[in-house]
Amino acid sequence: MNNPKIKIAVIGLGRLGSFHAQNIVNRVDSLELVAVCAAENQLQWAQDNLNVSAVYTDYKKMIDNEALDAVVIASPTALHPEMTIYALNAGLHVFCEKPLGINLSSVDEMISVINSHPHQIFQSGFMRRFDESYQYAKKMVGQGAIGDIIYLRGYGVDPLSGMESFTKFAAAADSGGIFLDMNIHDIDLVRWFSGHEPVRVWALANNIAAPELKDLGEYETGVAQLEMDNGSIATLLGGRHAAHGYQVELEVMGANGWLRIGEHSEKNLVTIFNQEGIVRPAFQDFIERFNHAFILELQDFANNIIKGQQPSITVEDGLKALKIAKACQESVNTGKVVDIKL
Ligand SMILES: NC(=O)c1ccc[n+]([C@@H]2O[C@H](COP(=O)([O-])OP(=O)(O)OC[C@H]3O[C@@H](n4cnc5c(N)ncnc54)[C@H](O)[C@@H]3O)[C@@H](O)[C@H]2O)c1
After folding, report:
1. What CATH superfamily classification does 6-120 receive?
2. Given ligand 1 and candidates 10, 11, 16, 175, which is best to mutate, with the most ligand atoms within 8 Å of its CB?
3. Residue 169 pLDDT more than 90?
């Protein structure tokens, strides 16, 4: 007999939450979308497109009123701790978008509540770990295909075309800055691939490509150099200026081989020969690039609930990535090399 579906709600229907909600409705087995919560002006879209009638602007009312098993939190980052705490205390499993939060003391409180509910699943949204190419590369590295890792380089650059939507996002709520908002994924990958932790960082940032971001307290481009605890080195580059599309790549250099994932950000196998030359279409945003990984991470969340097992991506992973991103930002702010205390 099939298990009954897990009744789930989504909080936040913005760039990512609306995609999670559509995946739950159309693409993820075992989850049933029963309610959503977002700004008033997004609720009609939800009713029209998600076939959901229980719509709220107050997440506490939604959690109190609806018979839910789980919730997906895709609200602005600073709200993740209070929403996670409320949902866990109401007995729900929680899938929370990255990063865990912005303020370390609220994240510490969030983690102590997560740890006090060991039978409820808490999963955070490091979806790149579910991407086929990253999984393949990780397996190769694990099998010793490139030898001991010497150097890692992670790029995460949003498309120039997304600048307007980012500006709205950053004006409405604190993004946490370029390293926390963008490079947190690259930080997670550096830790996941190397199995080591960074101990020191030196980072720089600028606003040459988007001077207007200065007024929002944001940097457009950030670069961080990390020294790892075994002497290996990692470079992170985050930005929002990629004219050609969405550029996310990872390079891992080993003692007897290298590998690169996504170096040209090619959307598919098509090459167009026209007046512009020989053109390869590029991914245009994070949803296009990680489409399948977003589905797989929610399927994994559902499976973890069904099996009663905590996810392979731990809350420790989320906390360490957050602390590393904050150290990168501190290095930019102070102009100094910063020791990383995890
Ligand atoms: N995994 C990834 O690669 C990835 C990609 C994009 C965004 N994110 C993360 O997802 C989160 C949301 O990002 P986004 O780009 O979708 O933001 P967004 O600004 O597009 O959407 C935010 C949503 O939250 C809702 N919201 C705001 N305050 C709320 C409240 N008090 N109660 C209920 N809903 C509220 C808004 O109405 C909106 O629907 C952020 O934490 C971001 O870092 C992760």
Report:
1. NAD(P)-binding Rossmann-like Domain (3.40.50.720)
2. 16
3. no
